[in-house]
Amino acid sequence: MNRLSTFLVFAFAFFAPALAMAAPAAAPSTSPSGAIVALAIGIGVGVAALGGALGQGRAAAAALEGICRNPNSAEKVNTPMLLGLAFIESLTIFTLVIAFLLLGKI
Amino acid sequence: MGEHDTWYTLLPFWEGLEAQFEEGLRRDWRALAFQDTHFTLLHVVGALIAVAIIVVATMRYRQSLQSDATKRGLLPSPRFTLSAMVDGIIGAVYKLSVDVMGEDDAKKFLPITGTLALFIFCMNIQGLIPGLLPPTDTLKTNLALSLIVFTLYNGVGIYRTGFGYIHHFIGPKIGGFYWLAPLFIVIELASHIARPVSLSLRLLGNILADHKVVGAMSALIAVGLPVPFLLLGTLVCIIQTLIFTLLTIIYIGMAIEEHH
Predict the structure, then answer these.
(1) Cα–Cα distance between A31 and A105 in angstroms, integer?
(2) Taking CB atoms and an 8 Å limit, are B1 and A100 in contact across chains?
(3) Smallest CA–CA separation between B163 and chain A, in Å?
(4) pLDDT (tens digit, 9 = 90+) per residue, B48-102?
(5) Domain residue limits, chain B
(6) Testing the interface with B: which of A14, A97, A106 to mutate, by most B Cβ within 10 A?
(7) Taking CB atoms and an 8 Å cutoff, what residues of chain B touch A89?
(8) In chain A, what are the domains?
(9) What sign does the CA torsion over B248, A49, A65, A71 have?
(10) What ipTM is given for this predicted complex?
């Protein structure tokens, strides 16, 4: 019984996306400014990801260095590091939100 | 943003229900910062599912605290059940808030911080179940939650420190830099207003992006390929819950600390 329910949950997780992907396709764009907006979305998210990755890389590197020097500090370093990563990431995420807003204007 | 059909839109009476609610509750806002709004009950149903899960889980937790198997809450639950999960989440939130605001205040604010953590987690995790929609991928939910936090920490700060709450806005007290106050008031007001905005937008962006990534991957190959992204999505859900709760705790902790 237990094994059966585990199998069913597993099968659901594997196969249900195929059933659930019933989203209607967006209508093709006709306006001439759509191409520029699409370009802006791509470049904007790319640049934002670049900056966010550089910043997060620095933060994570510093935190790991600190933990390597003093492994006992791992618990205390973790929370401020996560906070810092969240603040850095939120800037990238703002760009992503703007990209989603622009997506409606293509 | 990013709505799609769900299991509950397949219900035969769904459209009638939505039309019925739309008649009474629809508002046409003139000042729209985002796209045109449209009336939908999808996120409300998602939040109601989260509420149902939390009510059942917390009742099980209460039962387990009173049962003899755990010696009336002295021992942790022997199996990883619903009550053990609630215990873990609430314990983690309590530990976080003890570090920030001390034991007494942590106990005092645990009802709001713990409920926020449970509620946001239950809403986030719905985005990973195929055919459900995370209610946190819209500003309607997130802005409400973060405005509750905003009102709470300002109210608590004024209640605790009285007129001294203004010291949060006029800059450093040490050294007698009072002539800098006009500059600091503008900056601090802006940063306080930016807090609920960034809280809500961060949660929205992360959950929406995560949902879109899983959706895009399952559109490519529906079998097998989404599994690593579902794993990543679980991480994102947990971390975003942690961030929202931790920031709430820190804002409250900063508001109630005494200025000497």
Answers:
(1) 9
(2) yes
(3) 30
(4) 999 999 999 999 988 888 877 667 767 777 778 888 889 899 999 999 899 888 8
(5) 8-256
(6) A97
(7) 202, 206
(8) 56-106 (1.20.20.10)
(9) positive
(10) 0.70
